[in-house]
Amino acid sequence: MLKGLFLLFEPFSCWEDVYHARPKWARVLFVDVLPILVLSLLAECFHLVRFGKWQDVIGHRRFFTPEEAFVLGAAQLIIWLLFIVIAARLVQAL
After folding, report:
1. How far is CA 4 from CA 1, 7, 31, 76, 89, in A?
2. Given this model, what pLDDT does residue 1 score?
3. What share of the chain in percent tops pLDDT 70?
4. Is 58's pLDDT higher than 80?
C-alpha cells in the first residue's frame, strides 16, 4: 500500500528501491503466493463439503466428503504451483 503511494509522489526513488530490493524466488513463493493459494483452496474445499457442487448432467447437487475435497485441493495446489513456476520461467526467459 505504501509503495503505491510512493509511486505516485516519488516515482523515481521508489522504482530505484524496488529494483535494488529484488526478493529471492523462495521468499516470493512461500510468503506471497503460497498463503493466498492455500487459503483460497481451503475455502473452495469447505464449499465443496458444505454446499456441494451442482452437476448439470445428473441434475442434482453432489456433496463431497472431506477426504475427497482434500485430494481435489491437493491436486489443484500442485497444478497451480506448476503453472505459476512455468509461467514465471517463461516470463523470465522473455
Report:
1. 5, 5, 19, 32, 26
2. 56
3. 97
4. no
Q: Which three cell numbers mark 9?
A: 509522489
- CA distances 34 to 19, 28, 41, 47, 56, Å, are 23, 9, 10, 20, 32
CB 63 within 8 A of CB 46: no
Distance, CA of 21 to CA of 30 (rounded, Å): 17
Closest CA to 47 of 79, 21, 76: 76
pTM of the model: 0.70
Q: Tell me the β-bridge partners of 61.
A: 54
Bridge partners of 62, per DSSP, are 53
Amino acid, res. 42:
L
Contact 49, 69 (CB under 8 A): yes
Q: For residue 18, what are the contacts with CB-CB under 8 A and spacing of at least 6?
A: 3
